Amino acid sequence: MSTKVFVNLPTTDLERSKAFYTGLGCDISPEFTDENAACVVWSEDIYFMVLKREFFATFTDKPIADPNESVQVSVSFSQDSREAVDAIIAKGLAAGGTEPKPAQDYGFMYSRDLDDPDGNSLGFLYMSEEAVEKGPEAYMAEQGSAS
């Protein structure tokens, strides 16, 4: 059995969060969704548990950070192309998300960030297969000698 990843995210508006994530193309698992939480299916192995802040607080004794004020974690997803990165950002913006900073193009990697309506940070990136295989420095050195 492969490892399943569950990312827990606080929300102040569960219905708005469900609409945002379905706007990105995710499904909601009804078996693990109720009035306190929604199970967002990102892929066969990756899930978001979007939890009302009060319910989220029952799982920890630590304070729950306001994701609009501080970042505790940013979850990033690789995409198959720069165009795929741009497309998912467009979906997220249309679904009520915000882009906290401009796209970042490092030559070997193209990256854009998206905050959900609660301020939780998601990243989307494309990295060329050659950069993945050789590493960023070797890839960029080759690109520099090719120009």
From TrEMBL:
It comes from the Bacteria. InterPro entries: Glyas_Bleomycin-R_OHBP_Dase (IPR029068), Glyoxy/Ble-like_N (IPR053863). Residues 5-41 form the Glyoxalase/Bleomycin resistance-like N-terminal domain. It holds the Pfam family Ble-like_N. This is Glyoxalase. It comes from Microbacterium murale.
